[in-house]
Amino acid sequence: MSVRLLPDALENWTSRVFEICGVAPAQAAEAASVLVRSELRGYGTHGMTRLASYVERLQSNRFNPQPDLTYRSFPGGIVLNADGAMGQLAGPYAVRLGLDALKTSASVLIVIQACGHLGALGIHTLLAAEGGAFSMMGQHTPPALAMDGFRGAAIGHNPIAFGCPRPGHAPIVFDVACSVAARGHILLAARDGDPIPEGWALDAEGQPTTDAQRALGGFLLPMGGHKGIGIAMMVECLAGALAAAAPAPPPQRRDAMQAAFLWLVRPDQYAQSPAFGNYMDEWTQTYRTAGGDGARLPGERGDALERQAREEGVVLPASIRDELRALGDRLRVSFPG
Predict the structure, then answer these.
(1) How confident is the model over 254-269, as pLDDT tens digits?
(2) Which of 58, 121, 219, 318 would bridge with 146, disulfide CB 3.0–4.6 Å?
């Protein structure tokens, strides 16, 4: 039977879980808000299903539960050292830094060093768009992609996202990994004992597989073949190479720390109101007309899902709900509902 959970109750429970792991209350509340909002907007692979792994990393100090986020700024740029923080803290902090920088600049590029998994990048670019900025974000990940004939993982699946405000409408939010499918989809399939579609992954021997467990031990296939590899390379340049001067993390955090970039642009510095909003309306209307009733802009589904969930509650898959209830029992924080 489906059980609807109130988003506020789920958020408060998640915040308490983070606090038990040593996260300061204000930061625990923000991280919980980002994680739950990801769930509400349909990012199932990057929402509540990630909580147990984040708890393990916080308790083992692979994520820093008490990070001291510091930064240095210069004309047009910021370097943020996240000090091992969860991505659900580092991402929103970077957005706030960027929006503040746009008060005196038309554009700013932020490089984020030493942060944990950012989760759904679209949540962070959504926050920037809600603040009035166009943004693009990418995160460097460990090698995971391979192509036919490769002898191992060659480059990260390096997710990338952008967000763009639409005056009077929900922002456009586009979020993809450079792989055909996000690793999170394979994790969910493996957890539920389901096969994965052909064309998603190779096994450890480089052979195509539909077995989720074998895929987890192998490699992801890039979207669009060499095109996906090329986009992953762009993220390596911006999120990897530009962050290469980061201080070495403690040994226990080395495999959990990743780097990212966030680029923000202030639209009204380029196309003053109402020209920007009018152009956005024109091209999106052309898109809808061409696509008919089924045409939908990226971010619209997430916006509708979030509105519905905040009004009616959110339904978690039974396997995730059971996992969270067991986590709550272990930490002595009763799961809501």
Answers:
(1) 787 899 999 999 999 9
(2) 219
